[in-house]
Amino acid sequence: xxxxxxxxxxxxxxxxxxxxxxxxxxxxxxxxxxxxxxxxxxxxxxxxxxxxxxxxxxxxxxxxxxxxxxxxxxxxxxxxxxxxxxxxxxxxxxxxxxxxxxxxxxxxxxxxxxxxxxxxxxxxxxxxxxxxxxxxxxxxxxxxxxxxxxxxxxxxxxxxxxxxxxxxxxxxxxxxxxxxxxxxxxxxxxxxxxxxxxxxxxxxxxxxxxxxxxxxxxxxxxxxxxxxxxxxxxxxxxxxxxxxxxxxxxxxxxxxxxxxx
Length: 261
Ligand code: AMP
Description:
alpha/beta; Rossmann fold; five-stranded mixed β-sheet; four-stranded parallel β-sheet; 28% helix; binds adenosine monophosphate
C-alpha cells in the first residue's frame, strides 16, 4: 500500500491517575463492585502517548498519510482523543461505550472493537500502548492481533517500517529481541520507544478544530456482553507493623522464631 493511502490508527485509553506520583489513593466502592473513579483525575495512558508519538513520527517521515486516534469509552474519552490530536494526530474516532457498560469493558471487547475497525478502515498497522496503567492488563494488543490473525510486535523499543515489512526491537526478560513482521501487524509501545512531545499551545488550539467521529460498538458489529463477572473488589489486608531489631543476632533470632530460616 503506498504511504499516501496509509491510515495509521493508534489506540488511546483514558486512565485514572491513581498510580502517578501525584496520585490519589485507590478507594474501593462501598458496594465492592469496583474502585471509585468519580472525582478522580484522568489522563492519557503514558504508553499510549508513546504510541501516538510513534504514529506522528511515521507521518513526519512520510511513511503514513494520516494518524487516527481511537478511544473506546464514555464521553470523557474525547478529552483523551483531543490530547492525541494536540500531539499531531489528524482525526479522532470515539467508540462510545456508556459509563455503565464501560465499567465491565475488558480487553476482550476493546480488542474486538479495534479488530473490527482495522478491517473497516483497511489499515495495515495498528499501534497501541503495551498496557494501561490502571488495570495493568497488558492484553489488548495481543488479543487484537489474535482476532485479526496478524503478527504482533509487543513491548516495542524500536520500530522500523520498510515497505511491507516492519522490524521491531522488543524488550524481553533476557534483553532485546528483534522480530521482522510482514504487514499487516499489531505493535505495542514500550517505555523506551521514544519520548513523547508536549502539546504546544497553538497545537492545543488547532486540535479543538480537528474532527472526532463518534460510532457505537454495534455499528462495528461488536456486542459488549461481559465475559467476566466481578464477584467482589476488596482492599488489600492492612500491613502489620514491623519489628525493630538492634543487632544482626537479634534479627537472626527473630527470623528463627518465626520459622523463616
Ligand atoms: P491493556 O491491555 O488494558 O493493558 O491496554 C493496552 C493498550 O490497549 C492501551 O495502552 C491502549 O493502547 C489500548 N486500549 C486499552 N483500552 C482501550 C480503550 N478503552 N480504548 C482505546 N484503546 C484502549
